[in-house]
Design brief:
The protein folds into four domains: 183 residues, no CATH class; 139 residues; 299 residues, Vaccinia Virus protein VP39 (Rossmann fold, 3-Layer(aba) Sandwich), CATH 3.40.50.150; 30 residues. Helices cover 39% and strands 17% of the residues. It has 21 helices and 21 strands. A nine-stranded mixed beta sheet has the order 13-12-11-14-15-17-16-18-21, sandwiched between helices. A six-stranded mixed beta sheet has the order 1-2-3-4-5-6, sandwiched between helices. Strands 7-8 form a two-stranded antiparallel ribbon.
């Protein structure tokens, strides 16, 4: 019997793959042939299989067109039994070690792991591609036969770059024109589970936070850049680094690179001027209205043109002479831009704001007005409001746009499910959502800048982010584009207002709901606003709106603000019936364990120790009637009440409806007697009584 050939036949396998592609008119590129400048740069910037940057040469590279979009494909070949793929405990290619560093051995040895490594580089560094296919091909001799193994994986932005298997094959026929439609359907169906999505989002937020903290430390310790300058500075640098392309991938505004900054001393040539001009071009090509562009530029002028950050100086522990702006931008380009470009559906700039301001001690009243709402809370509230692809969502104190991002995430997920089989309808609806169905007002120019940046990241909902006083200046209409002057048909209101405003912020709620005919409103607000401190607005609201639920929240702002909050859910446009029951939940145990360690990461300060994701979903299901109390795992009758409220607007909190049984028990009696006897004996010993 012939022996198995254990030597590698990699060249034979690679040749087999090329012949198959040739036979099916699929054009490909070899290892060293350039693909396009963006992909080529991405492969150069990524860590190689041997460590260090560069040296990433996929065996085969090609493009295919799906749904009128070019998708790059990275192919890696191996030629030995057992070298197709190495998976981790999550059934994903094991390309990372436990400490987060690259598992170079696996990437080098296994075909799929190598292909995913290349595809991930494109995901990280090439913004033009939202989907990349990685194909591992392995082959080996078995007796007189050659066994061919093909495994295809999708890396996509909608899945946060988590590799998801497309399928296992014996050849490359799934790429051919005849099977292209089938492949397209399969890719659209590949989605992370909710648990996978949350796990990846949490990991990604930790990476973002870690990178931002490192940068913040550098700006504080080495560069001595004032905290008040840092948010605007980083926001400006990100916009300069993004560049702008048209729909045909033609460059309209070139991405800023560190080498573009020369640290000149000239008035019109210094680094601040270069960054400022690049931002100006960026804003113009993004078709922002002139007043919005000028507002943003006015915010940035101080830090870029009048802060002395452009003055060249010797860099600590180096021989470089450069401006502080260039030093910061080098860090931004290397460590911030890749995470920003991959952070779709996350409140990146909210994280930026909180990280860069977390060392600053400010009074509680002001602190409560500027701390931005955590993502898990914004998503919770968007679900309570039943946001879907047809919703029109607005926020009267938008901050960095966290609520709008969470709403958009749910809307796009709904679109994906509804239009799986129609790419054209999908694209049209996504465009409508981003252009017309989200609106946010933010009065603070620095925070408004972050909201615009966030929505640009979302490609591109920035059109309806307004730098306006929503109480005094906003009229409830679109303020630009082809719908300018038309009423925004809001049917969802999401809000975490400034608690220093009238009625603890309920003045914003009254104003917004007065402009809505129907729908849902979900408000995160200081809890005592519902027990009298929100008057007269809370009483007035009940005339035209129904309170559906009141959720006593955990200490969600621990370490950032000293305030107890509640979520109040309303049905808009329907007078509250005092004979109807309201759902009350004590959600002080939400499954998260919180610390307050200064400068510590989210991973330390916020840990899921009690199935937090499942708990939040259970509250949503219970309030919306999708689940009965008897079917709940985490919610019971100790922390859930259904009760009536009055029309006075001052009895909305859980504690006001929790009935406490004060009937004394036998144990109570025994304890009182024991305490009395202990006191009496002690008093007699001390001679205080006879």
């Amino acid at each position: 019997m012939p022996k198995n050939n254990t030597s590698s036949i990699e060249e034979k396998i690679e040749d087999w793959a090329k012949r198959y592609l040739d036979a099916n008119n699929l054009q490909y590129l070899t290892k060293t042939e350039p693909m396009d400048y963006e992909i080529d740069d991405a492969l150069k910037n990524e860590e190689s299989k041997k460590g260090g940057k560069g040296g990433n040469y996929p065996d085969i590279k090609l493009f295919i067109e799906l749904d009128s979009v070019r998708i790059p494909i990275m192919v890696e070949c191996k030629g030995k039994k057992g070298c197709l793929v190495k998976l981790d405990e999550n059934s994903e290619p094991a390309n990372k070690k436990k400490d987060g560093t690259s598992h170079l051995t696996n990437i080098s040895k296994y075909a799929v792991n190598g292909a995913v490594h290349y595809a991930t580089a494109i995901f990280k560094f090439a913004d033009s591609y939202s989907r990349i296919i990685a194909i591992g091909i392995n082959g080996y001799n078995e007796g007189n036969n050659t066994i061919y193994e093909v495994s295809a994986w999708l890396i996509s932005k909608k899945n946060f770059g988590v590799p998801k298997k497309i399928g296992d094959y014996t050849d490359l026929s799934f790429l051919t024109a005849a099977n292209r439609e089938s492949l397209s359907h399969k890719l659209r169906d590949i989605m992370l589970t909710d648990a996978e999505r949350e796990r990846k989002a949490y990991e990604f937020e930790n990476t973002i936070e870690s990178n931002l903290k490192t940068l913040n430390q550098t700006m504080h310790d080495d560069l001595h850049i004032a905290v008040g300058d840092r948010v605007e500075l980083i926001a400006a640098m990100i916009m300069a680094g993004l560049g702008v392309k048209d729909d045909n991938e033609n460059v309209l505004v070139k991405e800023l690179t560190t080498s573009d900054l020369k640290s000149d001393k000239g008035k019109k040539t210094h680094d601040g001027y270069i960054i400022f001009n690049r931002v100006s071009d960026f804003l113009e090509e993004k078709n922002l209205p002139a007043d919005k562009r000028e507002s943003i530029k006015n915010t940035l002028e101080r830090v870029l043109l009048h802060s002395n950050l452009e003055v060249p100086r010797k860099v600590k522990d180096t021989n470089r002479i450069e401006s502080r702006l260039k030093t910061v931008y080098r860090e931004v380009e290397q460590n911030i831009m890749p995470t920003f470009l991959s952070a779709e559906h996350l409140d990146f700039t909210g994280k930026l704001f909180n990280v860069l301001n977390e060392w600053v001690d400010i009074p509680d009243g002001e602190r409560n007005d500027v701390v931005l709402t955590p993502r898990y809370v914004t998503e919770f509230m968007a679900k309570l409001a039943e946001v879907n692809m047809n919703s029109y969502v607005w926020d009267y104190a938008a901050g960095s746009g966290g609520f709008l991002i969470s709403a958009m995430k749910l809307m796009l997920k709904d679109v994906e499910q509804q239009y799986k089989s129609s790419p054209e309808k999908y694209a049209d609806k996504v465009s409508d959502i981003k252009k017309y169905q989200l609106l946010g007002c933010e009065i603070r120019p620095d925070i408004y800048l972050l909201a615009v940046l966030n929505m640009i990241l979302m490609k591109d909902g920035s059109a309806t982010i307004l730098n306006v006083d929503s109480l005094a200046k906003f009229t409830g209409t679109y303020e630009q584009g082809d719908k300018k002057g038309q009423k925004f048909p809001a049917d969802v209101f999401l809000l975490n207002p400034p608690y220093s405003a009238d009625g603890k912020g309920f003045v914003f709620v009254e104003k917004a709901l007065s402009r809505m005919k129907s729908g849902k409103a979900c408000v995160l607000i200081q809890e005592n606003a519902g027990s009298g401190n929100g008057l007269p607005y809370t009483k007035s609201l009940l005339k035209n709106n129904t309170l559906l639920a009141s959720v006593h929240m955990a200490d969600i702002f621990r370490g950032k603000a000293s305030v107890q909050t509640a979520v109040y859910l309303f049905e808009v446009g329907k007078t509250h019936d005092i004979n109807k029951y309201v759902k009350f939940v004590d959600f002080s145990d939400d499954g998260y364990t919180r610390q307050n360690r200064k400068k510590s990461s989210q991973e330390v300060n916020l840990r899921d120790t009690g199935n937090a994701i499942e708990r939040y979903q259970e509250v949503v299901d219970l309030i919306l009637g999708r689940k009965k109390l008897t079917d709940c795992t985490y919610i019971n009758d100790e922390i859930y009440i259904e009760d009536k409220i009055t029309d006075k607007g001052d009895d909305w909190t859980f504690k006001q409806h929790k009935v406490i049984d004060i009937t004394p028990t036998e144990d109570d009696f025994k304890k009182v007697v024991a305490d009395f006897l202990a006191w009496k004996v002690g008093a007699m010993i001390r001679g205080e009584i006879n």
